[in-house]
User: Which sequence fits this backbone?
């Protein structure tokens, strides 16, 4: 099954949001434009629009997450949908009930949308393949595979600072190999026409044949961030030390941590991003994270508008409430 | 029962015989080729005009799921599927439940297979007790009382090199062949696809080439030192094929095989998390697939097996990494091999040899895999040009898990004979 086939309905409308792989620039741009309109909703006296009134959205979080789940919940509520939050710990999921059984049970509750976070790559794709046809699935992160809403909010943030994607040089620094954010980010940047995407990491944190993703590989941050417009720092998981991928946090920070001195090598107006949560002193120095070039809190704020735009889009409504054609 | 098979193209890869001729069977054995023996009168005539008559296929690696996982398949259901695929001899690895580490389990399997009567089943005994990789299994007893044709640790790793060395030494002194699944578990751990373009694209944990090549390197050194006769059952990488080919050239008592699916599919066939293409060893790159094909052409690879692993539907219904690996392959083994001839990889007798006499030789079976007077009348008659569409719901196997769903195959088995008895007849199915 090709990706276009799964994510689009018979009329060619987006019905799932699993991965950016296979989407085109027009679709991404439309979501970003629509998010601009939704961004104003939160500043109003009444912070709600009735677009998804009567719809039921289930947040299926098989992996703990506070921030992503909260923004999805808030986004759904601002669109006037009913929200069901299900935090499914791996232990209860492994009590003999298969994912498919659980899916059938949830379908019986007449939900319209599943927002899925799962620690296994392919989980959202699996759920979208097997869910009843009237259910839309939004991938809120699956294993190392994809985190398309995070990538979209990052694109939104970049666009607010840099007018033209086709003139940008972007560097992604850190654990690319195990990062769903990095994969989706690279796809988003490519689709939007960014001519030069760099990934910066030691070989142990790079996926095999990384260049085939359309990126330039650097093993030195000093070389890799020279003259870039945007720097995306990735979170380093503690367990990477145990897997013999890295010697220590100290060595990682010394080689790849973003400090003011290293930041000075990028363009003067370069912005610094991070999908959070931050490990201060591991991948990024506090002075940079809290400094004037950091847009990290802006990313969190933008997450809401972008997720509203995506939810409205897959449930077939534009920001003015019109049925999308 | 006396049978005359007339008018077919009789191909015996072992002797090089390839001609349109008649075949006479009596009392479960091949009586004669060509002219009828004096006084022969057939109880049954089989018209084989337009058909190829070849030795019944010998599949050196097939799981039947019994004992232990009868919800996925039984000896009866899977041997029936084998007959439908023209396979008359199946070799069962020891990773049943219970494990084949006592003669009783091997005897049970042999009895069930005899009762079912669709195909001959031979077994591999465990190399280590419970396949635990620590203590030696009773290899000689498995051979003498269980009729095991070799020993293997199936897909379970023997992580201790010391245990592997001793197991090989002991097997060598028992004159038993060791069947190897080359996998360095510490390198493959957690992985579910080839480490390469697709693992990167889909964010799936990868299994590097080194998981196979490092294991092959270790086993080759130990084979050289212990002198044990060994067979790598299903290699997947170009590099491993090259290493084993070189070792053979240097005179080591080693041989290798691959699976029908590794000769046709690559990592790209995983597409969008298609769990039907989830197999171990994983589907590799096009370069690897081409090297395997080259190994068939050059003769370096001597066996093509189905590595049949039937599954219940739920085993494949989960996010990709959580699905169970394996393909239901008995019924596609012959047509996938024939496709190699069509693709110009090797000529027909060469390819058929990898399915018949060569695996029989690896298993040490002298009474099958060939067409010659005095041998078992295990035969496969197929229509070489007859196309058929793979429809998984119509497979005889209890396992419907095949990535070849929808492929158009050529080569339809019309009759399978086991010891002179027709165990599959396409027209009466």
Assistant:
């Amino acid at each position: 099954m090709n990706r276009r086939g799964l994510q689009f309905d018979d009329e060619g409308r987006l019905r799932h949001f699993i991965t950016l792989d296979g989407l085109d620039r027009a679709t991404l741009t439309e979501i970003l434009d629509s998010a601009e309109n939704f961004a104003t909703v939160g500043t109003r006296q009444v912070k709600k629009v009735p677009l998804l009134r009567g719809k039921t959205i289930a947040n299926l979080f098989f992996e703990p997450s506070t921030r992503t789940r909260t923004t999805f919940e808030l986004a759904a509520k601002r669109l006037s949908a009913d929200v069901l939050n299900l935090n499914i710990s791996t232990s209860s999921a492994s009590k003999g009930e298969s994912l498919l059984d659980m899916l059938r049970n949830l379908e019986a509750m007449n939900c319209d949308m599943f927002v899925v976070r799962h620690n296994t790559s392919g989980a959202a794709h699996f759920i979208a393949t097997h869910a009843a046809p009237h259910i839309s699935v939004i991938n809120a992160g699956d294993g190392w595979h994809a985190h398309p809403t995070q990538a979209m909010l990052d694109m939104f943030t970049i666009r607010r600072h840099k007018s033209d994607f086709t003139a940008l040089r972007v560097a992604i620094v850190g654990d690319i190999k195990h990062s769903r954010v990095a994969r989706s980010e690279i796809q988003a940047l490519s689709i939007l026409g960014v001519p030069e995407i760099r990934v910066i990491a030691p070989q142990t944190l790079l996926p095999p044949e990384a260049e085939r993703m359309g990126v330039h590989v650097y093993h030195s941050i000093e070389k890799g961030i020279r003259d870039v417009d945007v720097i995306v720092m990735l979170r380093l998981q503690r367990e990477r030390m145990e897997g013999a991928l890295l010697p220590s946090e100290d060595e990682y920070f010394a080689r790849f941590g973003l400090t003011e001195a290293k930041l000075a090598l990028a363009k003067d107006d370069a912005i610094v991003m991070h999908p959070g949560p931050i490990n201060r002193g591991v991948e990024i120095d506090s002075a940079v994270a809290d400094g004037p070039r950091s847009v990290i809190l802006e990313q969190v704020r933008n997450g809401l508008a972008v997720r509203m735009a995506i939810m409205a889009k897959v449930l077939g409504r534009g920001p003015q409430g019109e049925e999308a054609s | 029962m006396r049978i005359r098979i007339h008018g077919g193209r009789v191909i015996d890869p072992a002797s090089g015989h390839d001609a349109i001729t008649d075949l006479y069977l009596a009392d479960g054995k091949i009586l004669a080729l060509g002219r009828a023996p004096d006084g022969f009168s057939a109880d049954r005539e089989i018209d084989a005009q337009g058909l190829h008559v070849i030795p019944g296929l010998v599949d050196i690696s097939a799981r039947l799921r019994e004992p232990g996982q009868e919800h996925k398949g039984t000896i009866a259901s899977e041997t029936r599927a084998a007959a439908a695929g023209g396979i008359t001899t199946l070799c069962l690895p020891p990773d049943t439940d219970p494990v084949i580490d006592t003669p009783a389990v091997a005897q049970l399997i042999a009895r069930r297979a005899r009762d079912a009567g669709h195909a001959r089943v031979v077994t591999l005994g465990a190399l280590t007790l419970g396949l635990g990789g620590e203590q030696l299994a009773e290899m000689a007893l498995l051979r003498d009382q269980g009729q095991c044709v070799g020993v293997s640790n199936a897909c379970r790793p023997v992580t201790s090199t010391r245990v592997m060395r001793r197991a090989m030494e002991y097997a060598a002194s028992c004159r038993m062949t060791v069947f190897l699944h080359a996998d360095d578990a510490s390198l493959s751990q957690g992985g579910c696809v080839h480490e390469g373009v697709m693992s990167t694209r889909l964010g799936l944990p990868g299994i590097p080439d080194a998981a196979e090549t490092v294991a092959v390197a270790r086993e080759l050194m130990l084979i050289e030192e212990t002198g044990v006769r060994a067979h790598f059952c299903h290699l997947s990488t170009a590099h491993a094929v090259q290493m084993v080919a070189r070792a053979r050239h240097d005179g080591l008592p080693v041989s290798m095989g691959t699976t029908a699916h590794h000769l046709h599919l690559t990592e790209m066939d995983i597409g969008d998390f298609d769990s039907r293409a989830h197999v171990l060893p994983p589907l590799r790159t096009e370069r690897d697939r081409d090297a395997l094909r080259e190994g068939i052409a050059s003769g370096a690879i001597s066996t093509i097996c189905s590595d049949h692993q039937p599954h219940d539907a739920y085993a494949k219904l989960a996010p990709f990494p959580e699905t169970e690996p394996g393909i239901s392959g008995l019924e596609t083994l012959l047509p996938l091999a024939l496709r190699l001839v069509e693709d110009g990889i090797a000529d027909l007798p060469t390819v058929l040899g990898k399915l018949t006499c060569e695996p029989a030789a690896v298993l040490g079976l002298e009474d099958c895999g060939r067409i010659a007077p005095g041998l078992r009348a295990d035969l496969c008659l197929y229509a070489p040009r007859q196309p058929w569409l793979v429809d998984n719901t119509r497979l005889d196997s209890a396992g419907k898990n095949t990535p070849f769903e929808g492929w158009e195959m050529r080569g339809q088995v019309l009759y399978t004979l086991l010891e002179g008895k027709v165990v599959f007849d396409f027209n009466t199915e």
